[in-house]
Amino acid sequence: xxxxxxVGIWALLILSTLSLAGGFLGALHPLGDSLxxxxxxxxxLVMICAFILRRDARAAMLxxxxxxVMLVSWLGHSPTETEVRTPQITLYQKxxxxxxxxxxxxxxxxxxxxxxxxTLEEISRENMPILDDLRADYPVQQFCPFxxxxxxxVLARGVTATNRLACAEDLGLAAMExxxxxxxFWVAALHLPWPWPHEQAxxxxxxxxxxxxxxxxxxxxxxxxxxxxxxxxxQIGAAGGMARVGPYAATFDLxxxxxxxxIDHVLAxxxxxxxxxxxxxxxxHHGVLAHLPWPxxxx
Length: 299
Known about the structure:
By secondary structure, this protein is an alpha+beta fold. The protein has helices at 2-22, 31-36, 39-52, 57-77, 104-113, 129-133, 200-211, 231-239; strands spanning 88-95, 117-123, 140-144, 151-156, 160-164, 173-180, 183-191, 218-223, 243-244, 252-254, 259-261, 264-268, 274-277, 288-293. β7 (183-191), α7 and β8 (218-223) form a beta-alpha-beta unit. It is elongated and about 70 Å long.
């Protein structure tokens, strides 16, 4: 019996190690980004199994590697927050949940936040009135439909829209160019499908092509359905000359075990800025409030 348990622990150790390694291969196959969502529990399983088998040098080595992987991941993808000097722009990011019980608290929270830009996802038929409810506060708006769960939108105030990216069918991207105090730049909202076996990789390729057509700095926020260290986030950031703002933070509890993962992100030039995680309110996603420097368009 003891030998059988040892074999089972070794099997779990090897499987967890392979799954952990696979989470770094998103550039080769979209399955990698699916595995990356569970990088923390996979590394934890490796370390637990290695501890149980600690008298075996091979197991100890795998445990040490897993510990190193987690350390590098957290240090590399949880950057120190950058102090934002005035003038600054405030952005409120929120997946509203297409079937929520009302957005009164969200509207109040957005107004209290003093956000200059608002990015919203899952604007369903039930949620659509929020655009009119906020129009007096945010008269500059761009909305694009996206599937049954609802469209995406960018709302802004105190600026002028100088250009708008045409909505693409089944893409989940809304973007408009605005004139700020430092010049023109783009602001965008994004909603991606889940990773493999869903079609996230295909959508990322299409989003990247659209972003590469934009001239000037880009600020993009949304529900990526991908963790901060995924290949999907890296691709989109590179296409728009952006990086993820702030440390890795949980914004969604993945059912059925309510495993907390960070899939709502704000991307900005240089990754400069600070973020604050906001309450879920009537949604299943936390909001993200970002304080960013106004982009400086190239001269």
